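Could you join me in thinking about how sequence relates to backbone shape in a protein? Label the sequence line and the structure token line clearly, so we can match residues to local backbone shapes. Once you have written the record down, we can walk along the chain together.
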Amino acid sequence: KDPQLMLRLQNGRFDMADRLLCSISETFASVYSNPTDLKELTPEFYSFPPSFLTNSEGLDFGMKQSGESVGDVQLPPWAKNPHDFIHQMREALESPHVSRYLNRWIDLTFGCKQRGPASIASDNVFHYLTYDDLGGQQGQMDFHPDCSWKEKGGSGNESQALLRRNVRKVCSGTGPERVAAMEWIILESKEREPEAMELSDYTEVLPLVQMCRQSKADMQRIAVKTLHALAVTRHNKLLILNAGTLEPLVDILCGATAQNTEMAVHLLARLVEVDSPLLASFNMSALAALVEMLHESTDAVRTGAASAIARLASSEVNRFNVLRLGGLSPIINLLQVRHSSTIRRLAATACMAICIDDDSKYQLVELGGLQLLIEICESPDPPLQVAAVQCIAMLSTNDRLKLEVAARGALRLLSAAACAGDGELQQAAAEAVANMCNDTSIINVVVKEEGLWSVIAMAQSPHSNVQRHAARAFWHLSVYHDNKRQIMDMGGLQSLLQLALLGERNVQATLLAEEALTKLSEDPVVKEAIQQATPSHEHEQA
């Protein structure tokens, strides 16, 4: 009706197309099926002229996710046009049926069924933040997990009711009561299962976000700690992000006290675990602060910063900015922190996230990162070993660096890891070994020295990815004539035949194994051996 009012409300922009009034029928269905859709009929639905139903100025309201553009409001089938719609709405409002039951609506909206048992019996309950006199209700009612009010002593999950009560105190309490509620949430998060800490919607964390903006360091600190305590499920992390937490969090990272900064970086490390467009282009100053934290003396700060950078680097923009800020060098330095396997693991993960393009891979090698990763491959800590092998596997996709990896003696370590009992470690190493077999100058090393036995062992793995990498390695090796009989003599034919019989269980491995067998059959001696072995394998498969 008045676009200028909407622009003023939305800071100079129209609201999202999917949230605009586009269809009477769709909105009616949403109100009846979605418990969070609380739209009501405004006086305009009963007043002439019906200008709010037509886009008379031809404004561009955008497109919905379905691809449909927003224009005139779609009327229900019984309305001929906007004027007829308003006319019939007024007729219904003034009908004898509405007049007969109008008193019931008054009881629900203004009367005795607003609150208390009568409201519960009438299913007239709403999110607690919509009640303006919330403070007066705290002694009488508790907030139920299903977002409805319940009398004390009623049924429901008592643990969830306690959480809701303290969340409510954070939202509406003052002074000591609010602080006590936040401290309760922080302590409970250490005892409860993550699912027991789930919130209803982002409005429950808005007061905490507001406190993060305060100049008082103590209130800021406990607010960040409370958000950190709540950021334990994907649902909560998205709610906290959508509540606008990043802006004050960036301010804290860039200029607050050391203690607050440490809490802020740990909160950020949790929030970045979820995929959100809000994180795709992270604040440059905050990224610079994170990079600077990698030089910190405290392990806690370095752990949080490395974890956050590793996740943020999944975005191309953030990855470019981390490199631009010189973030790779301090991350590589963390690979040398021998007293903390956690820091070294996060550093290896960050290296893998950052070094996607060839230039950054070369930079990692020049800064000594490859040698440190090779050393870590011999670590007794499985998660750390996995992270290092995964990073080397990523480097081995570059043709120039394959030679570098082999020259530094990593092939032996990768071959051993490819036969490991740890499935995650085996999959990472198998990918690296298969990548190495793609280089003609390395193939002889693989066949004659220390790699072929690992490829044969990879074929026996129950993991489909490892089977596929084994078949890929065999395919590369079988291309060269000198290797064909070596593969046969070391028992590689049996492994290839097993892979070829996987069929639909692993189509890629089967096709690559069949191609490898075809290449090996170019040697008459090997071909005869394959023909002799095939019937027995088919019998075993049957």
